[in-house]
Specification:
It contains 17 helices and two strands. By secondary structure, the chain is an all-alpha fold. Helix 2 packs antiparallel against helix 6, helix 9 crosses helix 12 and helix 13 runs antiparallel to helix 14. The longest helix is centred in the middle third of the chain and has 41 residues.
Length: 487
């Protein structure tokens, strides 16, 4: 019995509760709905919510705890002989020599990494994927795998029984409470309000958790690398050597080349996106016939939904070769992966974003201002330049700053079109990299989160978060401070 099937049964019981509650309300009112405090649907919703929510909370708690509980039970049941047999095959000689004196203590003698490796072997064997397990350890962990499979089956059936019993009991209790004077609407609205507050709290706590995780890991990084070196260093080479006597064994964590590359590509993107997006917004809002607007506007929205990897393909297969060939015809050497190619394509990607926001801002300007301008003899172009754009300027500036935030956070286009080389240059014809690209590159593969190399991504992420947050705050403040009030 899987958790998915349990949730499906719970959904069915909730729907049944809605039907029972609604019919019960009509029945106790003798068919006269006017005798009820609330409309019948509220009674059904009351039973459905109470049948589903407590059981759903139980399922979520169990899903969160089942893995840790089962892992502890399985490892605790393993004998020292089984652990030793597994360790002799899976561990290096030095690790095995360190482990053997304390193997009598059971699984607690294993390090966290070794426990995870053992649990992966047991889990693969328990679900019938023995091909992913070293044949030399199958015999030693087969009892543990059988124990784990048994626990999973017992736990799933137990959860199913408890959920059905709980939902059924709640249905019976709420069914008995339904009567003409029962305030079903008030109860349902309180439940919905509590759910909305809970969702808002989860969103806030998630944001706080992200910030704290970045902050704490960044502090760990700055204990290994001085913050001044990170913020003002001119060389970025996070690769650390295996031996201390190798060149660059400590790595170089000067992030200035990354900041420069990020700002360079974002600037090129905005030089493309800002004029094209703003001009297209002006055309669509002021000049385009309704038929043209109805056709072009959805096309721009579709362009906004194109995955960034597709723009990356367009950049590396079309734009970058074109720029390189044009440069070669003029005798200008241009890298096959350049900041110019990445910035141009990123700007194309941001055009729908700028156009949509600017179009909404311009359309928010009251028609009375247009009519007043025309009444004074101004032409359409004069009205746009001297009335509409000044009135919509705060919103347009806010849209541009939000677009800059979007450009700074882009990854895939830069990976494919600008490269991975951290170069300190302002030449758009050379290859550069950005903060997001380095975060992606460093975290590829299995990494130990205790080295300066890996921890550096949190410092980069914290800087990126602070910059985008500052841009968003400035954009909102500009809009709020300079927004025209039209009453």
């Amino acid at each position: 019995m899987s958790v998915t099937l349990t949730v499906a049964v719970l959904l069915f019981l909730s729907l049944a509760g809605f039907w029972l509650g609604r019919n019960r309300a009509v029945a106790v009112a003798g068919g006269r709905i006017a005798n009820l405090h609330s409309v019948p649907n509220y009674y059904g919703s009351y039973m459905a919510l109470w049948a589903g929510l407590p059981a759903l909370v139980l399922i979520l708690v169990w899903v969160a705890l089942r893995g840790a509980v089962m892992d502890w039970m399985v490892l605790s049941a393993m004998s020292p002989e089984q652990l030793e047999a597994w360790a002799r095959v899976m561990l290096a000689p030095a690790e095995l020599e360190t482990l053997l004196p304390s193997i009598a203590d059971g699984a607690s003698a294993l390090s966290q990494t070794h426990r995870q490796l053992l649990l992966i072997n047991i889990s693969n064997l328990a679900i019938g994927q023995a091909q992913y397990v070293n044949p030399g350890v199958i015999d030693s962990i087969t009892p543990a795998a059988g124990h784990l499979a048994q626990l999973r089956g017992l736990a799933d059936w137990t959860l199913f029984g408890v959920v059905v019993a709980l939902a059924g009991g709640v249905l019976a209790f709420t069914w008995s409470k339904i009567g003409p004077e029962f305030r079903a609407r008030n109860n349902v609205e309180r439940i919905i309000t509590a759910l909305l507050v809970l969702c808002s709290t989860i969103a806030v706590l998630t944001t706080v958790g992200i910030v704290l995780s970045l902050l704490f890991e960044s502090i760990r990084f700055f204990t290994k690398v001085p913050i001044t070196e990170f913020l003002f260093g001119l060389q970025w080479s996070p690769q650390t050597a295996i031996r201390a006597d190798q060149v660059g064994s400590s790595g170089a964590f000067g992030a200035v080349p990354l900041f420069t590359g990020t700002l360079l590509i974002a600037t090129i993107a905005m030089f493309v996106a800002a004029p094209v997006g703003l001009m297209s917004a002006i055309y669509l809002s002021e000049y385009a016939p309704k038929r043209v607007r109805g056709l072009v506007k959805p096309v721009l929205e579709i362009l906004a939904g194109v995955p960034t990897v597709v723009f990356g393909f367009f950049a590396i297969l079309t734009v970058a070769p074109f720029i390189r060939d044009v440069g070669a015809s003029m005798g200008i050497p241009i890298s096959s992966q350049s900041a110019l190619a990445a910035g141009v394509v990123m700007g194309i990607m941001i055009v729908p974003f700028v156009s949509s926001l600017a179009d909404d801002v311009i359309n928010a300007v009251p028609q009375s201002l247009r009519d007043g301008s025309y009444g004074l003899g101004a032409t359409k172009s004069e009205t746009i330049k001297q009335v509409l754009l000044p009135a919509a300027l705060p919103g347009i500036v806010g849209a541009m700053l939000l677009a800059v935030s979007r450009a700074i956070g882009e990854t895939m286009i830069v990976v494919m079109a600008a490269g991975l080389q951290a170069s300190l240059t302002l030449n758009p014809l050379e290859s550069v990299t950005t903060v997001t690209v380095q975060i992606k590159s460093i975290l590829v593969g299995d990494q130990e989160f205790d080295s300066a190399k890996t921890l550096s991504v949190f410092a980069l992420g914290l800087v990126l978060f602070l910059v985008t947050l500052a841009l968003n705050v400035v954009a909102l403040r500009i809009v709020q401070k300079y927004r025209e009030k039209y009453d």
